[in-house]
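Supplementary Methods. Inverse-folding protocol.

Structures were first reduced to a discrete structure-token string of length 314. This string, shown here, constituted the complete conditioning input.
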């Protein structure tokens, strides 16, 4: 609900792994599960929301509260009125405070805020619940939560979708559509040979795994994929589907260096851009990224997040 500065929105658009406003725990061990996100996940799932819809809510709250896991004590950046995971303002903030006082709890209590969300969704925000319940993917759920429940002055939809996709990749059991958003990642398995395998191998190297980059999904790549899946708490099947892609991609912006940038450059070259695969996200790579985003109908911000990755990799 809160208003963000233009500078903050550029940080939010990155949404994962590149610093800025939101510190997403992309490299955490499975132990991170015992946190506020899991509490919110279990609460919303218990209320009948699908996994995709639940991820849409939590992705929004990561952006709104400026933290991953979500921060119920968040106060709006710059001294603004927003408070809590949803950054309630105005009469809705007053209602939150009154609800807290009536229950004898601090407004910053996560359980209280989740109960307040449900109170709103079953009364004053019932239209928002109807709209969110009608969604079937992570991306559409994240946008619906923003549009109908949060109603912020600045949309930052890519940040919300990126965060929601990560939440889905952590908690979903696969009973709902995978977190592909508006883009489709290819499914890779042993025996595959393609530029997407090259990209995967570079990305695995960016996470610290030792692997040859040869574009061939052989036994060595299979072993590394399984090790990566185990480390990230994913199903260890050696098949690189949407959830493994979401976990392995690295959000990139100008100035980044390393194997993840090489993966990006490989994909941009495959898309017809004349680039050196040098691992440096300099002006030429930035120009190519923006040109690609414009041609693909994506947000043209030069930030390579899950949506841009998903569009590039095929």
């Amino acid at each position: 609900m809160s208003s963000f500065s233009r500078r903050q929105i550029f940080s939010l658009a990155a949404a994962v792994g590149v610093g800025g406003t939101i510190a997403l725990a992309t490299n955490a061990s499975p132990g991170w599960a015992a946190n506020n996100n899991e509490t919110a996940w279990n609460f919303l799932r218990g209320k009948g929301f699908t996994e995709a819809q639940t991820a849409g809510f939590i992705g929004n709250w990561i952006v709104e509260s400026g933290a991953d896991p979500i921060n119920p004590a968040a106060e709006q950046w710059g001294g603004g009125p927003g408070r809590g995971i949803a950054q309630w303002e105005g009469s809705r903030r007053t209602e939150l405070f009154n609800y807290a006082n009536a229950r004898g709890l601090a407004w910053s209590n996560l359980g209280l805020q989740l109960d307040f969300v449900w109170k709103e969704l079953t009364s004053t925000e019932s239209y928002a619940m109807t709209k969110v319940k009608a969604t079937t993917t992570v991306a559409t759920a994240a946008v619906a939560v923003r549009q109908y429940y949060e109603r912020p002055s600045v949309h930052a939809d890519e940040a919300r979708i990126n965060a929601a996709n990560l939440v889905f990749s952590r908690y979903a059991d696969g009973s709902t559509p995978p977190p592909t958003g508006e883009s489709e990642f290819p499914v890779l398995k042993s025996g595959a040979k393609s530029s997407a395998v090259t990209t995967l191998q570079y990305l695995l190297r960016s996470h610290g795994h030792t692997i040859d980059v040869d574009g061939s999904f052989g036994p060595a790549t299979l072993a590394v994929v399984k090790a990566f899946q185990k480390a990230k708490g994913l199903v260890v099947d050696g098949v690189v589907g949407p959830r493994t892609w979401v976990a392995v991609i690295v959000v990139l912006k100008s100035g980044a260096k390393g194997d993840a940038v090489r993966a990006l450059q490989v994909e941009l070259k495959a898309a017809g851009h004349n680039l050196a695969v040098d691992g440096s996200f300099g002006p030429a790579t930035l120009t190519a990224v923006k040109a690609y985003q414009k041609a693909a109908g994506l947000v043209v911000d030069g930030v390579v997040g899950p949506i841009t990755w998903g569009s590039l990799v095929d």
